[in-house]
Amino acid sequence: MGPPGSGKGTRAKIIGKMYDIPVITTGDMLREAFARGTEHGKVADAYMRKGELVPDEIVIAIVEERLRQPDIESGFILDGFPRSVRQAVALDRILKGQSKTIDTVLNVVAKPETIINRLSLRRSCPRCGAVYHLKDMPPKEDGVCDECGGPLIQREDDKEEIIRHRFDVYERRTFPILELYESSGKIKEISGDLEIDEIPKALEEILGKPDP
Ligand code: AMP
């Protein structure tokens, strides 16, 4: 959990590597669905451009399908899901059906200046989903993805007007989920202001040491 630009995606990717579990990133899955030209992808794109949440039915269907894959059996991390109370309720239903539970809800808390700096300097690769920061994590070659050689772009929804709206949507639709999880005692806070090389240690303190 965490507002746009708080550092959810970066932390999720590091968790995936450290604990060797799949990272399920709904934003990336929706962008991929659009790139493949699927019906869900086309509908999703219209919402994403405006900074609105994609309708729950679509996102829930995509996540439900993903959670049927066998690679999640020894754990997984969800990045950007759930983002509405309805999604949280659906997740609960899906996991119950598989006799699984959420271990931890990581809440990423960042200073406003960190978020503004991060979103304005973020560049992404639409081809493979890699994410860069022009100052802190620049690509080796200007405008070119280190991973796949694709061209880097500023996401349409990382532009100022849309970011503002994404914040409102977070406050209104996503923040209330924290209240839902509050009583479970599963919410753990992690700072969104850490330098990238400080993140693994912070995660270890919260989630425990990965198996050797
Ligand atoms: P992100 O890459 O996580 O910042 O997500 C980018 C956009 O994808 C969001 O602004 C939404 O339009 C859409 N999106 C991602 N995850 C969800 C979700 N769980 N529910 C609804 N829309 C989502």
Describe this entry's structure for a reader.
With 212 residues, the protein is mainly α. It has one domain (8-194): Rossmann fold (3-Layer(aba) Sandwich). The protein is 47% helix and 10% strand. The chain contains eight helices and six strands, in the order αβαααβαβαββαβα. The strands form three sheets. A two-stranded parallel sheet has the order 1-2. Strands 3-6 form a two-stranded parallel sheet. A hairpin with a 6-residue loop joins β4 and β5. α4 (56-66) runs parallel beside α5. The protein starts with 7 loop residues before the first helix and ends in a 5-residue tail after the last helix. Adenosine monophosphate (AMP) binds next to α2 and α3. The site of adenosine monophosphate has 17 residues, from α2 and α3.
Count of runs of 4 or more consecutive helical residues? 8
CATH fold field value:
Rossmann fold
Please state the oligomeric state of the protein chains shown.
single chain
Report the portion of residues in β strands.
5-15%
Structural Rg: 17 Å
In N-to-C order, the SSE pattern is: HEHHHEHEHEEHEH
- The unreliable regions are none
Helical fraction equals: 40-55%
Q: Give the CATH superfamily.
A: P-loop containing nucleotide triphosphate hydrolases
Main β-sheet, spatial strand arrangement: 1-2
Backbone structural class: mainly alpha
Provide the number of structural domains. Answer: 1
Main attributes of the structure:
single chain; 212 residues; mainly alpha; Rossmann fold; two-stranded parallel sheet; two-stranded parallel ribbon; 8 helices; binds adenosine monophosphate
